[in-house]
């Protein structure tokens, strides 16, 4: 992608340096096995810092944090630290911080979106109610900011404060764009860059800051995180029209029900017939799912899924190019392969 809403050239894996980590190195699971011990340390920090004198706070927090998420953001921070040679304890603390921030956004998102299913089970708001979800989300935000102070580094505070603010702006932009069939690619990209990719970007940048990397390496890490987060969100939007509910752990068609205009719909309206465009427009405006099967068929028939996947591939390529600027080692190579693995993501 170049600038806002301009997708770059096609993904060409032949241009990337790759050497194997394991026999199944193309999978994200194999990549993440490299930091399995580190992630256990992060889990210990999370468990310890969830402690609260209010039982409901701990109950709701543990419910959503233990629900099987991929933990990509803390993993990204740990991989960058490994690639740049930082082995200090702060990597565990800040990895927990970014997971707390992410979890807080999920709690608030599910309330705003009126979601009932996440990661294959009832959302926290479905289980505990909207007030508890919002307030525990606030607790996780504030606990994350308490933990940031442990680093005694204003640069780290600046990165995380900025990221949290941009994420909130992205949420508001998305809310303003709901049920708007006129939304175009640049506006779509602006939302996902803010709402999703910003925390990926911050996680990667934090690893570079901890390692006291040069400004050039820090920027390469930030670019990697932004591109990875953008690709992740585009594929997530594709799966709402191409995935299986049993694998994804959420209800298919949720985006349409909420009036979210994502890249598959934008591409389908651009490539479809007048009747097809009219049908999609009505569904976006009303959030009605009666024609969901028909809309899914249109998205597939028009090649909209391929358009979106190509956009994700372009971002994955940008991420891999950025990772290739890091010192050549297994952690840097894992970053390359993590980006490549997104293109095989099914949930």
Automatic annotation (TrEMBL):
Documented EC number(s): 2.5.1.90
Protein family: Belongs to the FPP/GGPP synthase family.
Protein name: Octaprenyl diphosphate synthase
A Pfam short name: polyprenyl_synt
Organism from which the protein derives: Ramlibacter monticola
Physiological role: Supplies octaprenyl diphosphate, the precursor for the side chain of the isoprenoid quinones ubiquinone and menaquinone.
Keywords from the UniProt entry: Magnesium, Metal-binding, Transferase
PANTHER family, alphabetized: ALL TRANS-POLYPRENYL-DIPHOSPHATE SYNTHASE PDSS1, GERANYLGERANYL PYROPHOSPHATE SYNTHASE
GO BP terms: isoprenoid biosynthetic process
GO MF entries: all-trans-octaprenyl-diphosphate synthase activity; metal ion binding
């Amino acid at each position: 992608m170049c600038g806002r809403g301009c997708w770059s050239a096609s993904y060409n894996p032949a241009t990337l340096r790759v050497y194997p980590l394991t026999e199944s190195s193309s999978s994200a699971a194999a990549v993440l096995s490299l930091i399995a011990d580190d992630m256990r340390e992060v889990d210990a920090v999370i468990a310890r810092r969830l402690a609260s004198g209010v039982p409901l706070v701990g109950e709701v927090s543990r419910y959503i944090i233990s629900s099987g998420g991929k933990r990509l953001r803390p993993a990204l921070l740990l991989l960058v630290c490994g690639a740049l040679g930082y082995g200090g304890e702060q990597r565990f603390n800040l990895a927990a911080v970014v997971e707390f921030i992410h979890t807080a956004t999920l709690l608030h998102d599910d309330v705003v979106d009126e979601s009932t299913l996440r990661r294959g089970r009832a959302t926290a708001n479905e289980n505990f109610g909207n007030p508890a979800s919002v307030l525990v989300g606030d607790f996780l935000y504030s606990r994350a900011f308490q933990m940031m102070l442990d680093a005694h580094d204003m640069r780290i505070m600046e990165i995380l404060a900025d990221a949290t603010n941009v994420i909130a702006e992205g949420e508001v932009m998305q809310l303003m764009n709901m049920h708007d069939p006129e939304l175009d690619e640049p506006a779509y990209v602006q939302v996902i860059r803010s709402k999703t990719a910003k925390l990926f970007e911050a996680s990667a940048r934090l690893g570079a800051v901890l390692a006291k990397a040069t400004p050039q390496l820090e920027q390469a890490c930030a670019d990697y995180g932004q591109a990875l987060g953008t690709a992740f969100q585009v594929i997530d939007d594709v799966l709402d029209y191409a995935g299986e509910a049993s694998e994804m752990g959420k209800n298919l068609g949720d985006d349409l029900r909420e009036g979210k205009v994502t890249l598959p719909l934008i591409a389908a309206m651009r490539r479809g017939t007048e009747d097809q465009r009219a049908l999609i427009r009505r569904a976006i405006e009303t959030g009605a799912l009666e024609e969901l099967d028909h809309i899914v068929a249109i998205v597939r028939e028009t090649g909209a899924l391929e358009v979106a996947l190509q956009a994700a591939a372009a971002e994955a390529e940008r991420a891999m190019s950025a990772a290739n600027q890091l010192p050549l080692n297994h952690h840097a190579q894992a970053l390359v392969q993590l980006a490549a693995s997104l293109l095989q993501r099914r949930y």
